[in-house]
Amino acid sequence: MTGGRFYFDWWTYRRMLTLLRAERPASRRLKLYAAFLFALPAVAALHAICFALDPLLFPSLRRTEVRRPIFCVGHARSGTTYLHRLMTNDPQFSYVLLYEMFFPSLLEKRLLRLLLGIDEKLFGSRLRRRLDAVDDKAFAATNDMHRTGLFTAEEDDFLLTFSLASGSWIVLFPYLDQLDFYHVDRWPSRKRRRVMQFYRECVRRQVALNGGGTLLSKNPTFCGRVESLIETFPDAGFIVPVRNPYDTIPSLLKMLQNSWRLQGRDEQLIQTSLRTLADQSYHSYTHPLEVLAAHPGVRSCVVDYRDLVGHPSATMFGIYRDLGLPAGPAATRAFERADGQTHETAHHYNLQEFGLDPDEIRTRLAPLFDEFGWDADHEEYADVHRDAH
Q: Residue 343: is its pLDDT beyond 80?
């Protein structure tokens, strides 16, 4: 197996530069434009060089394969993070820490781990403490909605950041009607294969770094590329958490709205992007289930969010059973420990804040509402639906 080539999306790069040139105010435009024009290609070139050196410096990489990976996909705010972090307690899995995701090369990852090891042994983890302090400050505004940090397991879609193929770019570029990072299954076949092959090479390097193990990936944005994942990893397994869209859709919109407003984005641009994102939400619910139904031989399971947070251990053991995964002592302890903990959010969002029509959501996702009995979760919206029909 070869080491693969670094992928860079030149079309998206040119499109981003065009959008930056038109941005206001000028001070923001010039800073970002300069960073994209000079810094981003330079960093991507460095990654590409290191990526090419990997198989030469680490011959064992050629023998590393990604076998029977597990992908957790589902609408954002549906329990994907909670489920993913429960499973990271299981040593059979190989996953990516946030700080590692911005360095796709195995060479870069090993150098970073070496640096952190030296810091721990010789300097009493002084660097690590400073990074933790940076964590607390950088993520303070969003940790109440989604707790994260440089040393936590996160969405490995970030591996594609400097290739300009990561869905995380919508945070800085709220142009969802002009930049598509989500509908990978709709991309031209050549582009889709190239980006998925590059993603496979990225996670292969992570498996090599971790000394083996089964890849564990969690990405809500991967709802739009389930078909592509099956093409790339035919032996993959899928977990699809589902939660009442009356909760998830406004929660996702609120998180991105806050981020865009903190950046001082134009309110009209924000509203346009939120409408596009809301429409994409329906696809996030239906597309994974439709693709998996068309591939009955693929290992998969659908998980009700209420079961996941209400009965964690029983639900997790059921997932392992459905996917044919062994549950060792470490996983068993983690799952049983979760039974005694609460997993609740202090945030409650309403549909009206974003101009969302509960009746439209109920109609467009009617089969799922009927299957999971979501009407009972929000009687005020159920009453609206009954009155309308």
A: no
